[in-house]
Protein backbone atom coordinates (compact mmCIF):
# COMPACT_ATOMS: atom_id res chain seq x y z
CA UNK A 1 0.00 0.00 0.00
CA UNK A 2 1.36 3.43 -0.93
CA UNK A 3 1.09 5.83 1.96
CA UNK A 4 2.20 9.36 2.77
CA UNK A 5 2.63 10.78 6.24
CA UNK A 6 0.29 13.65 7.05
CA UNK A 7 0.42 15.82 10.16
CA UNK A 8 -2.79 17.46 11.34
CA UNK A 9 -3.62 19.66 14.32
CA UNK A 10 -6.48 18.42 16.52
CA UNK A 11 -7.37 20.17 19.78
CA UNK A 12 -3.88 21.65 19.96
CA UNK A 13 -2.03 18.36 19.45
CA UNK A 14 -0.11 17.28 16.38
CA UNK A 15 -1.31 13.88 15.17
CA UNK A 16 0.34 11.93 12.38
CA UNK A 17 -1.85 9.84 10.14
CA UNK A 18 -1.14 7.72 7.10
CA UNK A 19 -3.21 8.96 4.17
CA UNK A 20 -3.88 6.10 1.77
CA UNK A 21 -4.16 6.23 -1.99
CA UNK A 22 -7.55 4.66 -2.69
CA UNK A 23 -6.06 2.71 -5.58
CA UNK A 24 -3.82 0.95 -3.04
CA UNK A 25 -6.11 0.19 -0.13
CA UNK A 26 -6.23 -3.01 1.88
CA UNK A 27 -5.25 -5.67 -0.70
CA UNK A 28 -7.82 -7.76 -2.50
CA UNK A 29 -5.31 -10.60 -2.45
CA UNK A 30 -4.67 -11.25 1.23
CA UNK A 31 -1.46 -13.11 0.37
CA UNK A 32 0.05 -9.67 -0.27
CA UNK A 33 0.04 -9.10 3.48
CA UNK A 34 2.80 -11.68 3.80
CA UNK A 35 1.49 -13.17 7.04
CA UNK A 36 3.06 -16.40 8.36
CA UNK A 37 -0.33 -18.15 8.46
CA UNK A 38 -3.13 -18.51 5.88
CA UNK A 39 -5.79 -15.79 5.81
CA UNK A 40 -9.07 -15.90 3.91
CA UNK A 41 -11.95 -13.44 3.58
CA UNK A 42 -15.26 -14.38 5.17
CA UNK A 43 -18.49 -14.47 3.21
CA UNK A 44 -19.74 -11.80 5.63
CA UNK A 45 -16.96 -9.43 4.57
CA UNK A 46 -17.60 -10.09 0.88
CA UNK A 47 -21.24 -9.05 1.31
CA UNK A 48 -20.46 -5.65 2.82
CA UNK A 49 -21.42 -2.75 0.57
CA UNK A 50 -20.60 0.96 0.66
CA UNK A 51 -20.86 2.61 4.06
CA UNK A 52 -21.45 6.01 5.59
CA UNK A 53 -20.85 7.86 8.81
CA UNK A 54 -23.83 8.47 11.05
CA UNK A 55 -24.32 10.46 14.24
CA UNK A 56 -21.73 13.09 13.39
CA UNK A 57 -22.35 15.50 16.24
CA UNK A 58 -20.43 18.71 16.82
CA UNK A 59 -18.68 18.82 20.21
CA UNK A 60 -19.41 15.14 20.80
CA UNK A 61 -17.35 11.99 20.44
CA UNK A 62 -19.60 9.11 19.40
CA UNK A 63 -18.40 5.55 19.85
CA UNK A 64 -20.28 2.64 18.43
CA UNK A 65 -23.97 2.17 17.91
CA UNK A 66 -25.94 -0.90 18.90
CA UNK A 67 -28.98 -1.16 16.60
CA UNK A 68 -32.39 -2.74 17.03
CA UNK A 69 -35.64 -2.61 15.06
CA UNK A 70 -38.39 -1.16 17.22
CA UNK A 71 -42.05 -2.10 17.29
CA UNK A 72 -42.61 1.27 15.62
CA UNK A 73 -40.75 0.01 12.55
CA UNK A 74 -37.89 2.44 13.14
CA UNK A 75 -34.21 1.77 13.76
CA UNK A 76 -33.15 2.57 17.31
CA UNK A 77 -29.48 2.84 18.23
CA UNK A 78 -27.88 3.04 21.66
CA UNK A 79 -24.41 4.53 21.59
CA UNK A 80 -21.64 6.00 23.73
CA UNK A 81 -20.98 9.75 23.64
CA UNK A 82 -18.89 12.29 25.54
CA UNK A 83 -17.45 15.77 25.11
CA UNK A 84 -13.82 16.84 24.99
CA UNK A 85 -10.79 14.79 24.02
CA UNK A 86 -11.14 11.16 23.02
CA UNK A 87 -9.47 9.93 26.21
CA UNK A 88 -12.36 11.34 28.26
CA UNK A 89 -14.35 8.19 27.44
CA UNK A 90 -12.66 6.82 30.55
CA UNK A 91 -14.42 9.31 32.78
CA UNK A 92 -17.27 11.08 30.97
CA UNK A 93 -18.99 8.66 28.60
CA UNK A 94 -22.75 8.16 28.74
CA UNK A 95 -25.17 6.05 26.70
CA UNK A 96 -27.56 7.94 24.44
CA UNK A 97 -30.50 6.90 22.25
CA UNK A 98 -31.23 7.93 18.66
CA UNK A 99 -33.85 6.84 16.12
CA UNK A 100 -34.18 6.84 12.32
CA UNK A 101 -36.48 5.54 9.62
CA UNK A 102 -33.64 3.59 7.99
CA UNK A 103 -30.27 2.27 9.23
CA UNK A 104 -28.46 4.90 7.15
CA UNK A 105 -30.34 7.71 8.90
CA UNK A 106 -30.69 10.62 9.34
CA UNK A 107 -30.97 10.06 13.09
CA UNK A 108 -32.85 12.07 15.66
CA UNK A 109 -31.09 12.09 19.02
CA UNK A 110 -33.59 11.47 21.82
CA UNK A 111 -31.15 12.04 24.68
CA UNK A 112 -29.20 10.22 27.39
CA UNK A 113 -30.23 6.79 28.67
CA UNK A 114 -27.63 5.85 31.29
CA UNK A 115 -24.91 7.89 32.98
CA UNK A 116 -22.41 7.30 35.74
CA UNK A 117 -24.00 7.15 39.20
CA UNK A 118 -21.24 8.96 41.05
CA UNK A 119 -19.25 8.28 44.19
CA UNK A 120 -19.90 5.02 46.00
CA UNK A 121 -21.02 3.03 42.97
CA UNK A 122 -19.06 0.55 40.87
CA UNK A 123 -20.22 2.47 37.76
CA UNK A 124 -19.50 5.91 39.21
CA UNK A 125 -17.83 7.49 36.20
CA UNK A 126 -18.16 6.25 32.65
CA UNK A 127 -20.95 4.22 31.07
CA UNK A 128 -19.79 2.81 27.76
CA UNK A 129 -20.02 0.18 24.99
CA UNK A 130 -23.77 -0.57 25.03
CA UNK A 131 -25.34 -3.56 23.34
CA UNK A 132 -29.14 -3.86 23.12
CA UNK A 133 -31.46 -6.82 22.51
CA UNK A 134 -35.10 -7.65 23.09
CA UNK A 135 -35.50 -10.45 25.63
CA UNK A 136 -39.07 -11.67 25.95
CA UNK A 137 -41.14 -8.56 26.61
CA UNK A 138 -38.17 -6.60 27.95
CA UNK A 139 -35.26 -4.73 26.40
CA UNK A 140 -31.86 -5.68 27.79
CA UNK A 141 -29.10 -3.08 27.66
CA UNK A 142 -25.66 -4.39 28.64
CA UNK A 143 -22.88 -1.87 29.25
CA UNK A 144 -19.54 -1.36 30.95
CA UNK A 145 -18.82 1.03 33.79
CA UNK A 146 -15.96 2.00 36.05
CA UNK A 147 -15.02 3.81 39.24
CA UNK A 148 -11.69 5.56 38.79
CA UNK A 149 -11.36 6.36 42.48
CA UNK A 150 -11.31 2.63 43.21
CA UNK A 151 -8.39 1.94 40.87
CA UNK A 152 -6.02 2.38 43.82
CA UNK A 153 -7.54 -0.77 45.34
CA UNK A 154 -6.08 -2.73 42.43
CA UNK A 155 -2.96 -1.54 40.63
CA UNK A 156 -3.97 2.04 39.93
CA UNK A 157 -4.60 1.49 36.22
CA UNK A 158 -7.82 3.08 34.96
CA UNK A 159 -9.00 -0.20 33.43
CA UNK A 160 -8.83 -2.16 36.68
CA UNK A 161 -12.36 -1.18 37.73
CA UNK A 162 -14.12 -1.90 34.42
CA UNK A 163 -17.03 -4.29 34.89
CA UNK A 164 -20.21 -5.30 33.02
CA UNK A 165 -23.67 -4.13 34.02
CA UNK A 166 -27.24 -4.69 32.82
CA UNK A 167 -30.31 -2.46 32.69
CA UNK A 168 -33.81 -3.51 31.62
CA UNK A 169 -36.79 -1.60 30.27
CA UNK A 170 -40.31 -2.35 29.10
CA UNK A 171 -39.78 0.06 26.20
CA UNK A 172 -36.97 1.23 23.96
CA UNK A 173 -37.89 4.71 25.17
CA UNK A 174 -37.04 3.70 28.73
CA UNK A 175 -36.60 4.16 31.51
CA UNK A 176 -33.79 1.61 31.74
CA UNK A 177 -33.29 0.39 35.29
CA UNK A 178 -30.20 -1.42 36.51
CA UNK A 179 -31.01 -4.94 37.65
CA UNK A 180 -28.55 -4.82 40.53
CA UNK A 181 -26.40 -2.49 42.60
CA UNK A 182 -23.48 -4.69 41.56
CA UNK A 183 -21.97 -5.67 38.22
CA UNK A 184 -23.70 -8.49 36.36
CA UNK A 185 -20.30 -10.14 35.84
CA UNK A 186 -17.40 -9.75 38.26
CA UNK A 187 -13.73 -10.62 37.96
CA UNK A 188 -12.30 -13.83 39.36
CA UNK A 189 -10.83 -13.45 42.87
CA UNK A 190 -7.89 -15.68 41.87
CA UNK A 191 -5.11 -13.71 40.16
CA UNK A 192 -4.00 -16.84 38.33
CA UNK A 193 -7.26 -16.82 36.37
CA UNK A 194 -7.39 -15.14 32.98
CA UNK A 195 -10.28 -12.83 33.99
CA UNK A 196 -9.07 -11.65 37.40
CA UNK A 197 -8.34 -8.07 36.28
CA UNK A 198 -11.44 -6.81 34.43
CA UNK A 199 -14.60 -7.92 32.63
CA UNK A 200 -15.68 -5.78 29.74
CA UNK A 201 -17.24 -5.48 26.24
CA UNK A 202 -20.36 -7.67 26.69
CA UNK A 203 -21.96 -9.53 23.78
CA UNK A 204 -25.27 -11.29 24.49
CA UNK A 205 -26.35 -14.40 22.61
CA UNK A 206 -29.84 -15.73 23.22
CA UNK A 207 -29.14 -19.42 22.78
CA UNK A 208 -31.74 -21.62 21.05
CA UNK A 209 -31.85 -23.75 24.22
CA UNK A 210 -33.27 -20.79 26.16
CA UNK A 211 -30.07 -19.87 27.98
CA UNK A 212 -28.37 -16.48 27.92
CA UNK A 213 -24.76 -16.63 26.81
CA UNK A 214 -22.80 -13.52 27.74
CA UNK A 215 -19.53 -13.33 25.85
CA UNK A 216 -17.02 -10.97 27.38
CA UNK A 217 -13.44 -9.76 27.12
CA UNK A 218 -10.93 -9.94 29.95
CA UNK A 219 -7.33 -8.87 30.34
CA UNK A 220 -5.04 -11.68 31.48
CA UNK A 221 -2.72 -9.11 32.98
CA UNK A 222 -1.15 -11.24 35.69
CA UNK A 223 -0.12 -14.05 33.32
CA UNK A 224 0.69 -13.36 29.65
CA UNK A 225 -0.77 -9.80 29.62
CA UNK A 226 -3.09 -10.63 26.69
CA UNK A 227 -6.77 -9.78 26.25
CA UNK A 228 -8.97 -12.80 25.55
CA UNK A 229 -12.63 -13.76 25.09
CA UNK A 230 -14.81 -16.06 27.19
CA UNK A 231 -18.47 -16.74 27.96
CA UNK A 232 -20.68 -16.89 31.03
CA UNK A 233 -24.10 -18.59 30.92
CA UNK A 234 -27.33 -17.90 32.79
CA UNK A 235 -30.84 -19.36 32.88
CA UNK A 236 -32.33 -15.91 33.55
CA UNK A 237 -31.35 -12.66 31.86
CA UNK A 238 -30.64 -11.16 35.31
CA UNK A 239 -28.20 -13.98 36.14
CA UNK A 240 -26.41 -15.45 37.88
CA UNK A 241 -23.93 -15.87 35.04
CA UNK A 242 -21.69 -18.92 35.40
CA UNK A 243 -18.33 -18.77 33.64
CA UNK A 244 -17.66 -21.64 31.23
CA UNK A 245 -14.90 -24.07 32.30
CA UNK A 246 -13.25 -23.92 28.85
CA UNK A 247 -12.63 -20.18 29.10
CA UNK A 248 -10.93 -18.36 27.51
CA UNK A 249 -12.57 -19.49 24.29
CA UNK A 250 -10.82 -17.11 21.89
CA UNK A 251 -7.17 -16.45 22.50
CA UNK A 252 -4.63 -15.07 20.03
CA UNK A 253 -1.70 -15.17 22.45
CA UNK A 254 0.07 -17.61 20.13
CA UNK A 255 0.34 -14.71 17.67
CA UNK A 256 1.17 -12.29 20.51
CA UNK A 257 -2.08 -10.52 19.60
CA UNK A 258 -5.24 -9.69 21.51
CA UNK A 259 -9.02 -9.81 21.12
CA UNK A 260 -11.30 -6.78 21.12
CA UNK A 261 -14.95 -5.77 20.71
CA UNK A 262 -16.73 -9.01 19.80
CA UNK A 263 -20.36 -9.41 18.71
CA UNK A 264 -21.91 -12.89 18.47
CA UNK A 265 -24.94 -14.03 16.47
CA UNK A 266 -26.51 -17.18 15.03
CA UNK A 267 -27.51 -17.62 11.40
CA UNK A 268 -28.85 -20.90 10.04
CA UNK A 269 -27.70 -22.87 13.11
CA UNK A 270 -24.14 -21.54 12.85
CA UNK A 271 -22.49 -19.30 15.46
CA UNK A 272 -20.54 -16.27 14.26
CA UNK A 273 -18.25 -13.89 16.13
CA UNK A 274 -17.18 -10.62 14.53
CA UNK A 275 -14.60 -8.45 16.25
CA UNK A 276 -12.13 -5.66 15.71
CA UNK A 277 -8.68 -6.99 14.77
CA UNK A 278 -5.82 -6.10 17.09
CA UNK A 279 -3.21 -7.14 14.53
CA UNK A 280 -3.85 -10.80 13.66
CA UNK A 281 -4.45 -9.66 10.06
CA UNK A 282 -4.24 -5.85 10.29
CA UNK A 283 -5.14 -3.45 13.13
CA UNK A 284 -7.63 -1.48 11.03
CA UNK A 285 -9.85 -4.36 9.90
CA UNK A 286 -12.21 -6.86 11.50
CA UNK A 287 -12.07 -10.58 12.17
CA UNK A 288 -14.78 -13.21 11.71
CA UNK A 289 -14.82 -16.58 13.47
CA UNK A 290 -17.45 -19.31 13.26
CA UNK A 291 -18.47 -22.22 15.45
CA UNK A 292 -20.87 -25.15 15.52
CA UNK A 293 -21.48 -24.90 19.26
CA UNK A 294 -20.48 -21.39 20.40
CA UNK A 295 -17.60 -22.84 22.43
CA UNK A 296 -15.05 -24.12 19.93
CA UNK A 297 -14.20 -21.38 17.45
CA UNK A 298 -12.51 -21.47 14.05
CA UNK A 299 -9.36 -19.70 13.00
CA UNK A 300 -10.05 -16.04 12.21
CA UNK A 301 -10.97 -14.82 8.74
CA UNK A 302 -11.19 -11.26 7.46
CA UNK A 303 -14.44 -9.86 8.89
CA UNK A 304 -14.48 -6.39 7.34
CA UNK A 305 -12.06 -4.16 5.43
CA UNK A 306 -11.00 -0.60 6.22
CA UNK A 307 -13.11 2.54 6.09
CA UNK A 308 -11.22 3.63 2.96
CA UNK A 309 -12.59 0.59 1.14
CA UNK A 310 -16.19 1.68 1.81
CA UNK A 311 -16.14 5.47 1.54
CA UNK A 312 -14.61 8.36 -0.36
CA UNK A 313 -12.32 9.00 2.60
CA UNK A 314 -8.58 8.75 2.01
CA UNK A 315 -7.31 8.25 5.56
CA UNK A 316 -7.46 4.82 7.15
CA UNK A 317 -8.94 5.27 10.62
CA UNK A 318 -9.63 2.95 13.53
CA UNK A 319 -12.94 1.17 12.96
CA UNK A 320 -14.06 -0.72 16.05
CA UNK A 321 -16.96 -1.94 18.19
CA UNK A 322 -18.88 -4.00 15.57
CA UNK A 323 -22.59 -4.49 16.23
CA UNK A 324 -25.01 -6.24 13.87
CA UNK A 325 -28.60 -5.39 12.99
CA UNK A 326 -30.48 -8.68 12.80
CA UNK A 327 -33.76 -8.81 10.87
CA UNK A 328 -35.77 -12.00 10.45
CA UNK A 329 -32.85 -14.06 11.69
CA UNK A 330 -30.36 -12.57 9.24
CA UNK A 331 -27.63 -9.94 9.59
CA UNK A 332 -28.54 -6.97 7.42
CA UNK A 333 -26.27 -4.11 8.55
CA UNK A 334 -22.96 -3.77 10.35
CA UNK A 335 -22.56 -0.82 12.71
CA UNK A 336 -19.11 0.33 13.81
CA UNK A 337 -17.27 3.06 15.68
CA UNK A 338 -14.98 5.15 13.48
CA UNK A 339 -12.40 7.79 14.33
CA UNK A 340 -12.42 11.10 12.45
CA UNK A 341 -15.32 12.72 10.64
CA UNK A 342 -16.06 16.33 9.77
CA UNK A 343 -15.61 17.39 13.39
CA UNK A 344 -12.32 15.43 13.78
CA UNK A 345 -13.72 13.43 16.71
CA UNK A 346 -15.38 10.04 16.21
CA UNK A 347 -18.70 8.83 14.85
CA UNK A 348 -20.76 5.75 14.22
CA UNK A 349 -20.55 4.06 10.84
CA UNK A 350 -23.01 1.79 9.05
CA UNK A 351 -22.41 -0.78 6.30
CA UNK A 352 -25.10 -2.68 4.41
CA UNK A 353 -24.81 -6.39 3.73
CA UNK A 354 -25.79 -7.25 0.18
From TrEMBL:
InterPro entries: Glyco_hydro_43, Glyco_hydro_beta-prop_sf. Residues 1-19 form the signal peptide. Keywords: Glycosidase, Hydrolase, Signal. Gene3D superfamilies: Glycosyl hydrolase domain, family 43. One of its GO terms (molecular function) is hydrolase activity. CDD domains: GH43_62_32_68_117_130-like. Pfam families: Glyco_hydro_43 (PF04616). Belongs to the glycosyl hydrolase 43 family. This is Glycoside hydrolase family protein. It comes from Paraglaciecola algarum.
